[in-house]
Amino acid sequence: MNGTTDLRRRRLAAALALLPFAARAADAPFPDKGRTVRIVLGLAAGGASDAQARFVAGRLGEVLGTPVIVENRPGASFILATEEVIRAAPDGYTLMYAPSSVVAQNPQTLAQVRYDPFKDLTPISLGARGPLVLTVHASVPARNVQELVAWIKANPGKAAYASFGTGTSSHIYGEAFAQQAGLDVVHVPYKGGADAAKDFLAGRVQFYFDAAPNAIQNSATGRVRMLAVAAPKRSAMLPEVPTMGEQGVSGVDMASWLGFYGPARMPPQVVARLNAALAQVLAMPATRDFFRQGAYEAESSTPQQLAELTRATYDQWGATIRKLGLAKQ
Asked: Does residue 142 sit in the same domain as residue 228?
């Protein structure tokens, strides 16, 4: 039996096993008061995405009238968390808050990914948009991108960059930057932003395409500097930070986003209830203010809009990955 056939049979078995759950979920009112809703996050506690998920969870619980918790399942570039959600009963009590890399990049860059983002997940709502920011450790004498390029070329073998994990946007941006500028650098993947920040702040890695909230927080320590925004235009929350394109580096300009997903085959009425509740939470002034503090914009969407955004981002990253010649690892 080849691997593809085995995978198809396991998916079929999983789907058949979940049919009773789906049938019960379609008949039962949602949510069942007192039953806990889990938001699974594939990153360690303490990072920007974790803070966003916990902020939303607290208010989502109030709107739904039932407890909502965040469960951290870091490791393997979000694969462990994604697989747990895919295996869960499609009843609305297990969700995932995921960066775009989970659905748009991982399936195209990681050989161990066995999920299909279009068949194995149910889009529920967009959660936030925001850029990654190129940051550099204060020990590196660079105040802009061109000075960083010059320093790396003058110090071969000394530059390493951190990422949230192999195949994530921070990794691909690092590779794109290195190729565009002709740099010899080492990639050091971590289990999430919190783990990467520890080594970055200690100077063990020299630069890092970090999530905007982390970049702002880390730069406030004086140990790192923000050099550029990896987005098509400057961030309204970071107007003083120029884009990569403004500093002569193209191909590192796709804004990042995060969304809420559930397992495949969720009942439409459950999806609609969760979507409406998330839209209410994400529109709250307190939520918008909290997200803006980290240079992110809280933003909801319809499930269909998230499905379309997922496909468009997948195709866009696919073109970039092929252009870079990145093989699945």
From this structure: yes
* Each residue's pLDDT tens digit, 244-275: 999 999 888 887 899 999 999 999 999 999 99
Pair (155, 223) in one structural domain: yes
C-beta pairs of 241-244 under 8 Å, 24+ apart in sequence? 241/133, 242/144, 244/134, 244/145, 244/177
Domain with 79 in it: 3-130+256-324
Identify the pLDDT of residue 310.
Answer: 97
Residue-wise pLDDT tens digits, 205-240: 999 999 888 899 899 999 999 999 998 889 888 999
How many whole angstroms separate alpha carbon 240 and alpha carbon 229? 10
Nearest to 275 by CA among 303, 317, 316: 303
Are residues 125 and 272 both part of a single domain?
yes
Instruction: Please check whether residues 96 and 32 belong to one and the same domain.
Output: yes
> Which of 129, 123, 130, 128 lies closest to 275 in space, CA to CA?
123
Q: Would you state the pLDDT for residue 236?
A: 84
Alpha helices, H only, the chain: 3-27, 48-64, 79-87, 100-104, 106-109, 145-154, 169-181, 193-201, 212-219, 268-282, 285-292, 303-324
* DSSP string across 179-213: HHHT---EEEE-SSHHHHHHHHHTTSSSEEEEEHH
209: CATH: 3.40.190.10
- Would you say residue 325 has pLDDT above 90? no
42 domain residue, yes or no: yes
Confirm if 120 and 264 have CB atoms less than 8 A apart: yes
What is the C-alpha to C-alpha distance for residues 109 and 212, in angstroms, rounded to an integer? Answer: 23
Is 329 domain-assigned?
Answer: no
Q: Are residues 269 and 305 in the same domain?
A: yes
- Among 183, 217, 247, identify where a domain stops: 247
Q: How far apart are CA 251 and CA 98, in angstroms?
A: 23
